[in-house]
TrEMBL record, chain A:
Keywords: GTP-binding, Hydrolase, Nucleotide-binding, Ribonucleoprotein, RNA-binding, Signal recognition particle. InterPro entries: AAA+_ATPase, P-loop_NTPase, Signal_recog_part_SRP54_M_sf, Signal_recog_particl_SRP54_hlx, Signal_recog_particle_SRP54_M, SRP, SRP54, SRP54_GTPase_dom. Pfam families: SRP54, SRP54_N, SRP_SPB. GO terms for molecular function: 7S RNA binding; GTP binding; GTPase activity. The keyword Ligase does not apply. SUPFAM superfamilies: P-loop containing nucleoside triphosphate hydrolases, Signal peptide-binding domain. It is an enzyme of class 3 (hydrolase). This is signal-recognition-particle GTPase. One of its GO terms (cellular component) is signal recognition particle, endoplasmic reticulum targeting. Signal peptide: none annotated. One of its GO terms (biological process) is SRP-dependent cotranslational protein targeting to membrane. It comes from bioreactor metagenome. Belongs to the GTP-binding SRP family. SRP54 subfamily.
Length: 451, 313
């Protein structure tokens, strides 16, 4: 997410960092790059203008020129302005105290409403009984799409009767259906429409009047360009939206739309879609996002994931063996499994600070296949071998390679990585085992270094 | 001429969204710093992209200097010409796809999720069946729920046969089957609708490469077109999409969809500029007739809001 913007800012700011002192012309040249970076990231032209001016006023001031590390100072200012622009607090979805809560999902065609609707419902189903309702009576097979997705995710579905053309009657039917079956959240998936289409916008307004909804969520494609602001403000003017969902953030879209939508409408981005699976929905955290833009890495996000994972109890086992200053291949296997549990590998790696700065470390190149192979190698070892890897010599290596469907080189690499990690772990154990730390050289052949 | 009228209506909005800015800009009478700044704003706000905008403005300044052009009106005409000629320098720009023997012509539609591939497939089929061509669909989007059903609805509308397998089956196999079916039944065109994929997803792009290879191998001497379906609200990421898809396939054209929106679609300037890929069609709505050949002069006029430039009041 936001990778390109982050890279650009990182580039500029590292140039600044390499100098002892910051002159006014340094600030100017840095801000030119900041401006370009933001514009390339599809941040609204006017918003960029305001932002750059604000940064300049603050950066050219005394505190920067007199500062010892001017680059950091500018970085801090850019970060502060960025996060101020995006709003600071994560905004949770509202649940009505008088059930059912009604969510009206709106947006342009192809923005990802149907997928997002199911993702939200799935997320809510942990504590609620959500019902998704197909209100898109225009696009061919849209109803079918929602029905299938709901079925796959085991979520309640309500669709129009065959030949139904009145959205409002579908809504009435859905509300009745929900109250009879005690669904407490109703998500209305509406047809995509142009914000300039008066007639269709009026249809949404009519739906709103009929209900009224607890949340009106605008789904915006993260790849949207300068039009995002106009789209958001048009929907906002007509409906008073309560939140934005940024979809398709798992691509390499720079996603600058998010910055501007908040600024222009004052409505928070609540959620972010980060993949095609129905689980790939995250709470949008603007602070975290600002950190990511600035190349600080998503340390918070990683910490959260690790905490979640630790609940499964695996962390204790590792901590246990750490205390005994022993790190075996079995621990490594356990760790591979936990990394897998953390979710798609590219997403985990994305959160690691500084990783984006490394050439050739694109998340795509680190496929989960490699992790699987590494696991297979260990799984092809005997218990003895796992506990005492030093006994693994030539013929054992060949057997393991054969058994895991990999190569002897792969086995060698894994053993080398293990050795590297064992040392690391030993050190780490001495530090007292406060938490987990990701090892070096886990995925690539030669291994890579985090910073 | 109801059809033509509708397109006109569709484009009217396109033109109006530009007219405000530029006619205002060019009616001031003086070329000063504010003038250039405004021009920059208009282009960037139109998703032309910051680098290309700066380079366009620089060339305009140079040209204006050379030709001693001083008035905003003349500058405007010069700028319009400049953008038109840049677009038209790309071979096949604005030309609809020819359907010529040997049959079947193969049209592979690719793009990110939600760009409008299936709808474009439906519109293309309707266009060609009305010309008396025999069209076959390949439902190679085997991933998205109900994608096959959606294409079947389009197939029913224009009487086009849909070759499909189960949801989740191998897309390349579907494409293969469909091509065999198209050959066997003497179809003129095979339209292959693929699953939307973000260009940054390596494995999905590989899958697309496989579909392409299969078609390439089996099509014989038939022509194959690979069209990138691009949403006109797309920002600068549109260029990255075009670049990545082009690297994998390569692309032979672009369809600019949802152009009835108020978005400007300026990213196609960058695509034409750096990749030399022609825009073949624009999509103007959800109906089967809402597709037309990309019209360069019209696009540029709309882009620059040429509604009687030079009007000083």
């Amino acid at each position: 997410m936001f990778d390109a913007l982050r890279e650009r800012l990182e580039g500029v700011l590292s140039k600044l960092k390499s100098r002892g002192r910051l002159t006014e012309s340094d600030v100017d040249s840095a801000l030119r790059e900041v401006r370009r970076g933001l514009l390339e990231a599809d941040v609204d032209y006017k918003v960029v203008k305001t932002l750059v001016e604000a940064i300049k006023i603050r950066a050219v001031g005394k505190d920067v020129l007199e500062s010892i590390t001017p680059g950091q100072q500018v970085a801090a200012i850019v970060y502060e302005e960025l996060s101020a622009l995006m709003g600071t607090e994560p905004a949770p979805l509202a649940i009505s105290s008088m059930p059912p809560s009604v969510y009206l999902m709106v947006g342009l065609q192809g923005g990802g409403k149907t997928t997002t609707t199911v993702k939200i419902a799935k997320k809510l189903s942990a504590g609620h009984k959500p019902l998704v309702v197909a209100c898109d009576l225009r696009r061919p097979a849209a109803v079918e799409q929602l029905r299938i997705l709901a079925e796959q995710s085991k979520i309640g579905f309500f669709g129009p009767a065959a030949g139904e053309s009145d959205v409002l009657s579908v809504v009435r039917g859905a509300v009745k259906f929900a109250s009879e079956r005690l669904y407490d959240v109703i998500l209305l998936d509406t047809a995509g429409r142009l914000h300039a289409d008066e007639e269709l916008m009026e249809e949404l307004a009519a739906m709103k009047r009929q209900l009224p909804p607890t949340e009106i969520l605008l789904v915006v494609d993260a790849m949207t360009g300068q039009e995002a602001v106009k789209v958001a403000s048009a929907f906002h003017e007509k409906l008073t939206i309560t939140g934005v969902v940024l979809s398709k953030l798992d691509g390499d879209a720079r996603g600058g739309a998010a910055l501007a939508i908040r600024q222009v409408t004052g409505v928070p981005v609540k959620l972010a879609g980060v993949g095609e699976g129905t689980d790939a929905l995250e709470v949008f955290d603007s602070r975290r996002m600002a950190q990511r833009i600035m190349g600080m890495g998503d340390v918070m996000g990683l910490a959260e994931k690790i905490r979640e994972m630790a609940d499964s109890g695996g962390a204790e086992k590792i901590a246990e063996s750490l205390k005994q200053k022993k790190f075996t291949l079995e621990d490594l296997l356990l760790q591979f499994e936990q990394i897998e549990k953390m979710g798609p590998l590219d997403k985990v790696l994305e959160m690691i600070p500084g990783l984006s700065r490394m050439k050739g470390m694109g998340a795509d190149e680190l496929d989960a296949k490699r992790l699987k192979q590494s696991k297979a190698v260990i799984q092809s070892m005997t218990r003895e071998e796992r506990r005492e890897p030093s006994i693994i010599k030539g013929s054992r290596r060949r057997r393991i390679a054969l058994g895991s469907g990999t190569s002897v080189q792969m086995v060698n690499q894994l053993l080398a990585q293990y050795e590297q990690m064992r040392k690391l772990w030993k050190q780490f154990g001495k530090q007292g085992g406060k938490g987990l730390r990701l090892p070096k050289g886990l995925f690539g052949g030669g291994g890579f270094r985090f910073r | 001429m109801a059809f033509f009228e509708r397109l006109k209506q569709g484009l009217k909005g396109v033109r109006e969204r530009w007219s405000g800015g530029l006619s205002l800009l060019f009616s001031g009478g003086v070329v000063d710093e504010a003038f250039w700044e405004n021009l920059e704003e208009i282009l960037i706000s139109g998703d032309v992209g910051v680098d290309l905008t700066i380079s366009l403005i620089d060339s305009l300044k140079r040209d204006a200097e050379e030709k001693r052009i001083r008035t905003p009106e003349e500058l405007f005409r010069l700028f319009e010409e400049m953008i038109s000629s840049r677009l038209l320098a790309v071979p096949f720009m604005g030309e609809p796809l020819p359907v010529t023997p040997p049959s079947p012509s193969v049209i592979l539609l690719v793009g990110v999720n939600g760009s409008g591939k299936t709808t474009t497939a439906g519109k293309l089929a309707s266009r060609w069946t009305k010309e008396g061509k025999k069209v076959i669909f390949a439902a190679a989007d085997t991933f998205r729920a109900a994608a096959i059903e959606q294409l079947k609805v389009w197939g029913d509308r224009s009487g086009v046969r849909v070759i499909a397998q189960q949801h989740g089956s191998d897309a390349a196999a579907v494409a293969f089957d469909a091509l065999q079916a198209a050959k066997a039944s003497g179809a003129d065109v095979l339209i292959v609708d693929t699953a939307g994929r973000l260009h940054s997803k390596h494995n999905l792009m590989e899958e697309l490469g496989k579909i392409h290879r299969v078609l390439e191998k089996e099509k014989g001497d038939s022509r194959m077109e690979v069209l990138l379906v691009l949403d006109s609200v797309m920002g600068q990421n549109g260029l990255a999409q075009a670049e990545t898809f082009n690297k994998m396939l390569p692309l032979t054209g672009v369809v600019l969809t949802k152009y009835d929106n108020t978005a400007k679609g300026g990213i196609i300037l960058a695509i034409a500029h750096s990749l030399k890929i022609p825009v073949r069609y624009v999509g103007l709505g959800e109906g089967e007739d809402d597709l037309r050949a990309f019209d360069v002069p019209e696009f540029v006029k709309a882009l620059l809001g040429d509604n009687g430039h030079g009007q000083g009041n």
